[in-house]
Amino acid sequence: MLSNFVQDRNPFNLSAPPAWWLQRLYDYDNQLVVIPSRQDAVYRLARKTWNRPGIQLMADIHREKDTAMLAHYGLVPVTTIIGAGIWGENIFHALRARDIWAHGGAEKFVKAEEDAEAEAKRKQQAEIRDDLWMRSGDAWRSYQARTGQRSKVDTRTGRRTPTAPPTSSSTAGLGITITG
Q1: What pTM value is reported for the model?
Q2: Does residue 80 fall inside a structural domain?
Q3: What is the DSSP string of 75-125?
């Protein structure tokens, strides 16, 4: 029997994961353990640890049933496994995506995260800049139209003719009226 499932009290009568899945979990990482939650009808995925004082401190700080349970077994929480039909490959894909060592270690992982954040910020700033550029252009064209500065091109003759002078009292006297 593999040592990566702990039945514990299991107040929600959750069934054990299938043997093939437990074997797959053991093959993926033999330090990972599945244990039913004492608080909710879910499973907790945890990692074995040898730092008992740190675990006990964690249990003392967090007065939750699951934290105390994990500390009792010498485990630290990794994630929660929720839902029906959960025993599949999706969990392993999520674990691989979060595995720092698989991404080259902590420094490389942090660098990749910082680069991704910087790229997201650059894209957001570019979108804001483009939006403001478009708005300022619209505002400028609106101002020109309201003050009579904009001219139209007659498509038949190709000559420019000024637009009508402003009629709004808020822009009266701001533009130049050309006659003649």
Answers
A1: 0.58
A2: yes
A3: EEEEEEE-STT--SSHHHHHHHHH-TGGGTSHHHHHHHHHHHHHHHHHHHH
Look up tokens 């400028």; give the residue. Answer: 140
- Final residue of a domain: which of 37, 72, 99? 99
Tens digits of pLDDT across the chain (180 residues): 458 999 888 889 888 899 999 999 999 999 999 999 999 999 999 999 876 666 666 656 666 788 888 888 888 888 999 876 688 888 888 888 888 877 788 898 889 889 999 999 999 999 999 999 999 999 988 888 788 776 666 677 766 665 555 555 555 555 555 555
Instruction: Establish if 95 belongs to a structural domain.
Output: yes
> Which residue segment(s) compose the domain that 50 sits in?
19-99
d(CA 99, CA 82): 20
In a domain, 174, yes or no: no
